Amino acid sequence: MKITSAGLLALASVLPFATAQSPEWGQCGGIGWTGATSCVSGTTCSVINPYYSQCLPGSASVPPTTTPPNTTPVGTTTAPTSTGSTAPAPGNPFTGFEYFISPLYASEVAAAAKLITDSSTAAAAATVEKIPTFIWLDSVSKIAPFGTYLSTASAQQKSSGQKLIVPIVIYDLPDRDCAALASNGEFSIADNGETNYKSLYIDAIVAQIKQFPDVKIVAVIEPDSLANLVTNLSVSKCANAQTTYLACVTYAMQQLSAVGVTMYLDAGHAGWLGWPANLSPAAQLFTSLYASAGKPSGVRGLATNVANYNALSAASPDPITQGNPNYDEIHYINALAPLLGSNFPAHFIVDQGRSGQQNIRQQWGDWCNVLNAGFGTQPTLNTGSSFIDAIVWVKPGGECDGTSNSSSPRFDAHCALSDAAPNAPEAGTWFQSYFQTLVTRANPPL
Ligand code: BGC
Question: Signal sequence span per UniProt (predicted)?
Answer without folding.
Answer: 1-20
